Amino acid sequence: MKPKFIADEMLGKLARWLRLLGYDTEYGGDDSEIISRGLNDDRIILSRDKELIRRASSIGARALLVSNEKIEGQLAQLLSENLIDIESGESRCPMCNGEVKYSNGIWVCIKCGKKYWIGRHWKSIREVLRRVRSIARPRDGRNFSQAG
Ligand SMILES: [Zn+2]
After folding, report:
1. Between 20 and 30 A from 110 (CA), which of 8, 54, 91, 97?
2. What is the pTM of this model?
3. Are the CB atoms for 44 and 83 separated by under 8 Å?
4. How many folded domains does the chain comprise?
5. 58 alpha carbon to ligand 1 midpoint, in Å?
6. What is the distance between the alpha carbons of residues 31 and 69, in angstroms, rounded to a whole number?
């Protein structure tokens, strides 16, 4: 089953990218809220705050300290930890985390109604993902840049 995530306030961009890659990702809230949503809703907590990660781990929540400041490095870290797949082709609404459906050539969010076209923007997304693959260092030694 695909993992679900909750990202802290500092990781808004990462949250939008994870949604774009099809992962159910909540975003924001104070430390206690983040930890309880992580525990109760079985979400992996993503944070750049060591103390939050320590607190979450100490009570049994799954939590990952995001070490990189840049989005490519952050996604590469998740890929290296085998937490995400960047080739799935699935997507959720980057703005609200809703599910999207494809109709008449466009993606429509069934929650907020926002429409997405696959246009020039898609090219820059692919470029970022290409860089992510090139810097990811998987634990099993497989080379992500050769995949896909
Ligand atoms: Zn939406």
Report:
1. 8
2. 0.90
3. yes
4. 1
5. 34
6. 20
